[in-house]
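Lecture 7 notes: from sequence to structure.

We start with a single chain of 253 residues. Read the sequence below before looking at the structure.
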Amino acid sequence: MHNDARTMLEKIVRDEWLQARAVLGLFAANSADHDDLLVYADDERKTSIERLCHLRQQRAKPEGQPQNCLADFVAPAESGLADFVGAFAVTAGIGIDERVAQFEKAHDDYNAILLKALADRLAEALAERMHERVRKEFWGYAPDENLANEQLIAEQYRGIRPAPGYPACPDHTEKQALWELIEPNRNAGIEITDSYAMMPASSVSGWYFSHPKSQYFGTGKIQRDQVEDYAERKKLDKRVVERWLAPVLGYDT
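Now the structure, written as tokens:
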């Protein structure tokens, strides 16, 4: 690390320029209707409190390779298996706005950029650390995990933490369900805007899946039939859905 960066890190920690906070929840859940997840109020699984809607890949693949959907990584309700899904939100950006504004007012762009970049990296590091604790402690599906740093970087652990708005679940509006489940605004000081951007900006949120075969993937371009089905499942106008899914649409609206 550059000496200036090391000094900045030490001063930030000493002066409490930023705070790191995290909130997570583990919920009884099952997949339903192929592409959705039902999140239940409790382990009795009689009442669902959220329906998480997901998209399935629609791309040419070699025979025998599935078109992935995140719902595939949770046991179907009809299987009778008691499965779970997790939700999380972490931030390392609380308190930096005032300091960044001071730097910018003093025309100190270097330290303003450095502070924001540091907060971003710390948020990602906290997300990784919390995922590790979920695997080994809170959910505990991999209690004996003992991976070297290189293996952790290569994501050679079991389970994934995909985020709404990213390739496997490109719809940012699914953050609304996440916020309703674990209330990051109340529990971690993380708000979402009308466009579903997180504030502070140095924040990470997403879902936890534990299935041994769970993997990251991109939906790729999706077609009109799936968009219409997705809009019906979300109970939204198709034009609204098309606007949110514009980057992954495989057709001209």
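The beta strands are 19-32, 36-40, 48-53, 83-94, 191-192, 198-199, 203-208. Keep this in mind for problem set 3.
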